[in-house]
Amino acid sequence: MNAYINPSENEKIIFVNIRNSYNCKDKSNELYRPNLYEATRKYWIMSLTRASKATLLIGHVNGIVKEVIRPTNCYKSKAPKYTNRVEFEGEEIFDSIYLEKSITNKVKIGQNPVNYLNM
What range defines the domain where residue 90 resides? Predict the structure, then answer.
């Protein structure tokens, strides 16, 4: 069993479920992303104001952290199909203490692909 994350109250975290992109290997499928960064950073339905307050963007698969990004920018997507969605840019944290840990002690994993902590 994976250990749980234990972020400080100062961390404002957005958790995004990247399961569909993570498991998609078909390059012709719209869910396909070439890497974890791309799977985590884009096309999320959320408030741009709220998104801009995040100190971490965490991509998870079934509650297990696969990617951690420190956002430097967020904006409404210019992709024609996703104009009502938010994209992020930022620094990948390859040595994050959260990688491969469970988030299920902090958020409920369900139908909503986006969850917030300390926001």
Answer: 13-117
Report pLDDT for 71: 98
Give backbone dihedrals phi and psi of 39, rounded to 5 degrees, phi first: -65, -35
112 lies in a domain? yes
> In the predicted model, what is the mean pLDDT of residues 75-98?
95
Does position 94 have pLDDT exceeding 90, yes or no? yes
Full-model pTM: 0.93
- Mean local confidence (pLDDT), 99-104: 96
Asked whether the beta carbons of 67 and 87 are under 8 A apart, the reply is no
Number of domains making up the chain: 1
Q: What is the largest CA-CA distance in the chain?
A: 41
Tell me if 65 is assigned to some domain. yes
Q: Would you say 58 and 104 are in contact if contact means Cβ atoms under 8 Å apart?
A: no
Other Cβ atoms within 10 Å of 44 Cβ, number: 20
Please answer whether residues 49 and 118 qualify as being in contact, where contact means their C-beta atoms are separated by less than 8 angstroms: no
